[in-house]
Amino acid sequence: MTQIQQLKQQHSLASWKQIILAQQNSGLTAAEYCRQQNIKYNAFYYWQRKIREDFAASALQIPQKDAPAPEFATLATATVTATVQTATLPSMLKLSCGPVSLEVNEQTSSKLLARTLACIKDVFPVC
Length: 127
What we know:
Elements lengths: L2 H24 L3 H8 L3 H19 L32 E6 L2 E6 L4 H14 L4
Helix pairs in contact: 1-3
InterPro entries: Trp_repressor/repl_initiator
Protein name: Transposase
Organism: Selenomonas ruminantium
């Protein structure tokens, strides 16, 4: 292929890329777009196939032998240490009955607990 023919093909390829992008952005099917723009349907698909082939060929190019071989990068690492401190929590008891919820721990006096339960029983007989 001569240099002039290559330039013509590159120009045609660039023009058709714009046409195909316009069709995709229009939301129309290829057939509808070609009808509206007075483009030959067969020509549209011919250039669409050429553009796809050109893209696939450029995407699948084999690397040159002169290109350096890929290497893994060395990354610096940091040592992270974590200490977990657990606090001793008093034992907790949670009583629930309907809308009432009562939390009791070891420091709760038995008298307070008895009075509270009696009040709850008076107000909420179901509990």
